[in-house]
């Protein structure tokens, strides 16, 4: 779906669907019958109207991840609930200076988010470039993971897996098992990679083939940077430039140690359970054969991203992401929560305001982690500039909308609460943690 004359209008329906994954038919949930859902292509300044019809048997809603749109419109509203059988009309407008890049959409109904994403509800949003980037072709690559049982249903995670953040056994790209991409030597491709996994961190490496990082989450780097590998957190997007070199190359997701539950609940069964510490996963093959093509012109440099350092900071806060014994709530699976997932000791309450900020202000947030597991922290609407990480100052201005706060570590970010007022949220993008309570509200007034 592409916008015309500044407007994109479309219908989206969430419904159960049998989806072919590899050689199996799997009972999943889909937007308009496909996993991923349709790609939405818009430009800065566009208005988007979506009629969302919910044909699931559970409540849902729609969130446009990473878009800088008003929380007073409904495009970014995680508080809306669209009940089964209902239709909801969304409308929002991107500011004329909205950063280009790769974004995505997914449901955000608290308590159902991890289940609905793991079942297949997500899709890409592409915001058009300001100036064109010379490439032979562009590909949108949405990575997700799932575990299928012997009868073709998705396995439901037990409480332990939810606390760890579920990771599917099968990692797929656009719903395909290890797809094969073909190119000729010398061709330049732009890959827009979205990590739509509910919990899995992706450390991407393309063997025998160089890749350049063009964008991480939003906007683009001033100059594309050669990278041997890149970590894509749940919710992050990267744009990679890949220049075809003769041969067969594999894009792999290497293991990432994102911590575990060591020491929680007095140790015991918790000790030693570390998700993500498994073998590398092959995501796709990049097959470069045929006669070489002429080299494309170089990628033009972009203006350096904004740097908030040097602007007056009007507010400072500390937010601690923690896990503690005795979460009182019922888990979405129906069992009693054994562990609470909290921010500053509190579980999510949509009626409480956790961060009350002045519209237009720049704030410095210190995100700390008092637990033995990493938490990739996401703030809606307003992107974060990472200024300090692991005790070190970050040299270049680096903007992301999901930032990893490592186990027992901390990260300092600057946020400009520009353009909009209204209420939104920040949360761990390990979506099981979000559903278990690790989410807070922010209000710009
Ligand atoms: Cu990708 Cu609050 O979500
Ligand atoms: Cu989001
Ligand atoms: Cu988390």
From TrEMBL:
CDD domains documented for this protein: CuRO_1_Tth-MCO_like (cd13853), CuRO_3_Tth-MCO_like (cd13900)
One protein family per Pfam: Cu-oxidase
Gene3D superfamilies attached to this UniProt entry: Cupredoxins - blue copper proteins
Signal peptide: none
Key words, A-Z: Metal-binding, Oxidoreductase
Residue span(s) of domain Plastocyanin-like: 23-130, 165-246, 342-443
Protein name stated in the entry: Multicopper oxidase family protein
């Amino acid at each position: 779906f592409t916008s015309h004359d500044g407007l994109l209008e479309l219908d989206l329906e969430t419904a159960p669907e049998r989806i072919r994954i590899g050689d199996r038919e799997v009972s999943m949930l889909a937007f308009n019958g496909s996993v991923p859902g349709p790609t939405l292509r818009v430009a800065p300044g566009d208005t988007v109207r979506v009629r969302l019809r919910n044909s699931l048997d559970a409540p849902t809603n729609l969130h446009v991840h990473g878009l800088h749109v008003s929380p007073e419109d409904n495009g970014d509203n995680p508080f809306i609930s669209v009940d089964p059988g209902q239709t909801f009309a969304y409308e929002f407008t991107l500011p004329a200076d909205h950063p280009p890049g790769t974004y995505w959409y997914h449901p955000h109904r608290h308590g159902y988010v991890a289940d609905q994403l793991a079942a297949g509800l997500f899709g890409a949003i592409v915001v058009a470039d300001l100036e064109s980037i010379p490439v032979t072709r562009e590909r949108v690559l949405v990575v997700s993971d799932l575990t299928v049982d012997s009868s073709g249903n998705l396995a439901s995670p037990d409480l332990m897996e939810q606390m760890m953040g579920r990771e599917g056994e099968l990692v797929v790209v656009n719903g395909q098992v290890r797809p094969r991409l073909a190119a000729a030597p010398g061709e330049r491709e732009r890959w827009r990679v979205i990590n739509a996994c509910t919990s899995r961190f992706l450390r991407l490496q393309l063997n025998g083939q160089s890749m350049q990082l063009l964008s991480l989450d939003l906007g683009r780097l001033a100059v594309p940077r050669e990278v041997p590998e890149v970590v894509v957190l749940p919710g992050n997007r990267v744009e990679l430039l890949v220049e075809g070199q003769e041969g067969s190359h594999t894009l792999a997701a290497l293991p990432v140690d994102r911590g575990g539950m060591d020491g929680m609940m007095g140790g015991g069964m918790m000790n030693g359970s570390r998700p993500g510490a498994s073998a590398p996963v092959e995501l796709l093959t990049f097959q470069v054969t045929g006669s070489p093509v002429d080299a494309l012109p170089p990628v033009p440099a972009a203006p350096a991203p904004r740097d908030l350092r040097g602007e007056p900071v009007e507010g400072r806060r500390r937010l601690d992401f923690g896990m503690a014994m005795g979460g009182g709530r019922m888990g979405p699976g129906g069992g009693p929560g054994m562990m609470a997932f909290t921010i500053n000791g509190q579980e999510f309450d949509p009626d409480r305001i956790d961060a009350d900020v002045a519209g237009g202000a720049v704030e410095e947030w210190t995100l700390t982690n008092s637990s033995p597991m990493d938490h990739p922290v996401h703030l809606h609407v307003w992107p974060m500039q990472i200024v300090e990480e692991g005790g070190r100052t970050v040299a270049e201005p680096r903007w992301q909308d999901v930032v990893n706060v490592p186990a027992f570590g901390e990260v300092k970010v600057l946020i400009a609460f520009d353009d909009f007022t209204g209420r939104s949220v920040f949360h761990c993008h390990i979506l099981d943690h979000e559903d278990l309570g690790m989410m807070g509200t922010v209000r710009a007034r």
